[in-house]
Amino acid sequence: MDFDCSTIPAGGQACTPNAGISKFNFTSGKTHRLRLINAGADGMQRFSIDNHTMTVIAQDFVPVRPFDTKDDLTISKPLFPFPALPNAATTLNLDITFRPNATGFNLWHVNDISFRANYNSPVLLLAAAGNTSYPDSPQWAVQNFGSNSSVRLIIRNHFGANHPMHLHGHNFFVLAEGQGEWDGKITNYPSTTRRDVQIVQGSKDANTPGYLVLQYDTDNPGVWPFHCHIAWHVSAGLYVNLMEQPDEIRKRSVPQTVVQTCRDWSVHSGNEVVEQIDSGL
Q: Among 46, 146, 196, 198, which is most exposed with the fewest C-beta within 10 angstroms?
């Protein structure tokens, strides 16, 4: 896009004035594959090409049955279906709210907890050492699912804005989405969509939350972040830690490079005051 580079402070980012929009050359009559990545911290992007209908073939690296572009969960089906279990081993309700804390700053809360990390106490290292309960640190927002083989998350968003929810360590099944209360029906079962990011819709009003129902198999022992992918939403606490198979975590070795990094950090923080400006993801 055209931009006035004189507005950038001296010594700032390199700038090409009036660069125009991006241009790409395509060969008429051929099919072209585009890989689209939203690297933004907030904006939800829509992509289109004038006078063309595009066909989606993958989402979040999961191949899907080709379909023409349309924002509708009901038409997205994996190319290689792995049906979600109709009944998960355990279910957790997660309610998202936005309200001020005791000092008057607005923070995101999940089940009444606004996440805040302790840089000197990584939960994965604590779990690897056999410490899997943190009653004195509820702000770590740890949900320990123990040895349950699968987890269903029912997320209810009581705020009017959408949240792109991302889970580390897994592709999850997207069972349903909408506004109001989930009726228990799974969309496109058994060809359920799999992704690692999915938007939970904003609430319609104070009594009608947006909802999103996800499910995953706990086949990757660890402590996995589940959070909104909007940078300042996770900075303000919209985050939970999902612990799975803690007995298996204890059997695994944490890489020495990670352990050494934690030791180095401990030395640094013992001599310097670290200003933690956000939740700490």
A: 46
Gap between the Cα atoms of 274 and 280, Å rounded: 12
Interatomic CA distance for residues 114 and 140, integer angstroms: 8
Q: How far apart are CA 195 and CA 98, in angstroms?
A: 26
The CA distance from 174 to 211, in Å, is 11
Give the Cα separation of 180 and 280 in Å (integer).
32
DSSP state string for 32-64:
---------SSPPP----TT---EEEEETTEEE
pLDDT digits (tens, 9 = 90+) for 66-78: 988 766 677 788 8
Helix, strand, or coil (residue 115): coil
Give CA torsion, residues 31, 37, 38, 44, to 10 deg.
40
CB 7 within 8 A of CB 197: no
Instruction: With 0.90 as the threshold, say if the pTM is over it.
Output: no
Cα(268)–Cα(281) distance, integer angstroms: 19
Displacement of CA 35 from its chain's centroid (Å): 20
CA-to-CA distance for 66 and 165, rounded, in angstroms?
Answer: 24
Identify the three-state secondary structure at position 117: coil
pLDDT digits (tens, 9 = 90+) for 44-90: 777 888 888 889 999 888 898 898 876 667 778 888 888 888 899 99
Q: How many CA atoms lie within 13 A of 12 on its CB side?
A: 8
Going along the chain, which residue ranges are E strands?
55-59, 62-68, 90-100, 106-110, 142-144, 150-157, 163-167, 172-179, 193-195, 197-200, 210-217, 222-228, 239-244
